Amino acid sequence: MFIVCVAACPTGVAHTYMAAEALEMTGKQRGHEIKVETQGSMGVENAITDADLARAEGVILAADVAIINKERFDGMIKLECRVADPIKFGEAIFDALEQEADHG
């Protein structure tokens, strides 16, 4: 499964990158291909492209602030959570997204 993710926290520093790393590690351990866009003090990094969106089977939005261009994920299988959740509850986040993908 190809999953795109966005990680963003109010300051856009520590938690953003910790969440991005947790999403990548947990996703890969579960056999998924993961791309994580970060939005923070450095701006948007590793931006999700139109090609990424076209092939994505799901999206995880881990944020405590408004996501830039969130509407690009409309109509997709989506899980929204706090930015710290992938760090603390990574397996549960992927369980929920996978279950939604399997059962719609």
Automatic annotation (TrEMBL):
Matching CDD domains, A to Z?
PTS_IIB_fructose
* Annotated PROSITE patterns: PTS_EIIB_TYPE_2 (PS51099)
Question: For this protein, what is the EC number?
Answer: 2.7.1.202
What Gene Ontology molecular-function terms does this entry list?
Answer: kinase activity; protein-N(PI)-phosphohistidine-fructose phosphotransferase system transporter activity; protein-phosphocysteine-sugar phosphotransferase activity
Q: Which InterPro entries match?
A: Bacterial_PTS_Sugar_Transport, PTS_EIIB-like_sf, PTS_EIIB_2, PTS_EIIB_2/3, PTS_IIB_fruc
Protein's name according to its UniProt entry: protein-N(pi)-phosphohistidine--D-fructose phosphotransferase
Residue span, PTS EIIB type-2 domain: 1-99
Biological source species: Chimaeribacter coloradensis
Keyword terms:
Kinase, Phosphoprotein, Phosphotransferase system, Sugar transport, Transferase, Transport
Its BP terms in the Gene Ontology are: phosphoenolpyruvate-dependent sugar phosphotransferase system
